[in-house]
Design brief:
The protein is built from eleven helices and 13 strands. The chain is α+β, with helices and mostly antiparallel strands and 434 residues long. It has a four-stranded antiparallel beta sheet with strand order 3-4-2-12. It has a four-stranded antiparallel beta sheet with strand order 6-5-9-10. It has a three-stranded antiparallel beta sheet with strand order 7-8-11, with helices on one face.
Amino acid sequence: MIKKGKLATFFIVVIALLVLIGTTSSWLLKDTKLGLDLKGGFEVLYEVQPLKEGDVIDQNAMSATLTAIENRVNVLGVSEPDIRIEGNNRIRVQLAGVKDQTEARQILSSTAQLSFRDINDKLLLDGSDLKAKGAKVGYDPQTNQPLVELSLKSKQKFYDVTQKISQMQAPANRLVIWLDYEKGDTYEKEIQKANSKIVSDASVREPINSDKAIISGGDIDAAYGKQLSSILNAGALPVKLEEIYSTSVSAAFGQDALDQTLFASAIGVAAVFLFMLLFYRISGFVSIITLLFYIYLVMIFFNGINAVLTLPGIAALVLGVGMAVDANIITAERIKDELRSGKSVLSAFKAGNRRSFGTILDANLTTLISAGVLYYFGTSTVKGFAIMLMVSIAVTFVTNVFVSRYLMQLLVSSRWFDKKKSWFGVKESEIREL
């Protein structure tokens, strides 16, 4: 006797899944964040070096540097930066969508060590005397020229410094503001350079009773003034960054790569679906439903952890589809073997599931171990591939083992297929009598 309720439940579940996938997929794809290789942008690998002799590059220094770089990336307005520590002394920065690499390099790698000195290069004040977020762009009220206003923590300390400078004979009465002063630099040499580290050398004729200092003149325009104030507000780097590798990906190349990858993936997945339908019939149809649900769940999980989709990520997703298909094929073949031995559809389904589970578990477990090794020893791109692969394996178990078996159980227990063994891809001539 056919149990219509089981069939109705099957179709309700299938239709609900298809409606859910069809109505929310566009939203899901829209929110997917694309990586550097798909969106285009700039990637640079830095080696972290001590700023001063005796400084130690340890975990605290690396974490502080990472935070400083993240603050500076905000200056660039990059929405989805990928900044990570690699090894003991390297930091990789991926900035999707960045077009001006020169500006990005300058903002990222400038140590931004601010110092106030006299013309004899004697240190008077440094960046630690600046208030937090104490730099901003302003305009000279008389000339309307852009300048950078600095707010200092101590008005008295600045007064004492300017009083000392003002007592010097002109032209020695200059308060020199340096950016990234290094040992060996001198005022006499640096002031002659076109691209000087000296950002201001104003004359001080009398003590300044204020907590404000001004950087003006020279090359400061509105754009540079904004950039300089943003770098100073982001904080000085506690280390030196030595660029050892950089690359750029144009947006056109990224879009081309994305289009070609999606096209190839669509062709591959469609071919798999056709194969499943032709060789495994009703089992293949259930597999297609669960594979679509599998891809949908992977993308939800991917967006949920704010992951960035890259070409290796898409490759891992397609590889996961292959593994999910493999799980379905193993189960379907076991069921066919049981049907060929003469068992009923319900008995073949139960025996096939039982015999296939161990094989599927072993196959996925070994792949999971391989993905774990890739993640532990791999670099950034390989790590991304490994994470995507591990996610795919986990979701495979949820969808293509449990969901697939639930749907198949609904169909088989309806008893509608009891005399339709050919719907499972088994010929009548292959079935042996018990």
